[in-house]
Amino acid sequence: MAKINFEESKECLDLMCDDKFKTDFSNLLRSRYPLFYITTNEERRFIKFLDSFCAVKGYECYLWDAYNGLVNLNDRKEVTSKTEDLKSNPLAILDYIITQAKGYENRKSGIQDKKDAGVNGVIFVLLDYFRFIEPNPDIERRLKALSDVNSIVGTIITGPYYKTTEVLSNLVPVIDFPFANQNEIKKALYTVAEGASLNVPDIISETRKMEKELVDSVRGLTMVEAQTAFCKSLVCHRGWNIKTILEEKRQIISKSGLLEYFDKTD
Predict the structure, then answer these.
(1) In a designed cystine with 151, which of 104, 185, 188, 198 is the match (CB 3.0 to 4.6 A)?
(2) How far from each other are the two terminal CA atoms of the chain, in whole angstroms?
């Protein structure tokens, strides 16, 4: 992934999410809350948000998952530990974060070094860590230990829904990563249209005419789902067909089994 400069990061951050989420997210980090939970099933979009947020607000960020291990968000290079295997080991990564957090808690000069380098804090993001949150004393004890550290290190657990245990329920606050807003959808819409413009010459002008209707037709979908619906219309009709987009939306919602779709266009 190519890095973007500060102005591009700021533009991207201004475009994404809503003010409430950005305020809540920023306040948890600024207050040095050690551990919290983000619900999202849009991992790629959330990482894009993190990339822009950290560039603009001055945070160092690391991502962990059970396949890639621990990587630096800035350069996507893997971080290794001399004492533990961080890849695919949900206990080892917690031990590593606790050690890092306590290091800053016990060595104030380390915090000043970060500030001198323009770093306001360090974020560890445990992608899909909800899979490991069970009534497991080894996991629970480490997360409790992490929640007790007063440091510049913040840890974020992600999952498509909030999952906790009785032991952890009052230690891990949660905020929901919102669906794409109107401006995000609009940008995605024109990206899809520009990609099709060679084969559908009048698609940009058609998009301008139907912009609001097209954006409204995919509200409530993830960004990937919205782009899929737009692309299906272009493939099937070489242009925009709202009925096709709404039918794709209905299928997506029905497949989830969580909501029932009602078409208000009739």
Answers:
(1) 104
(2) 43
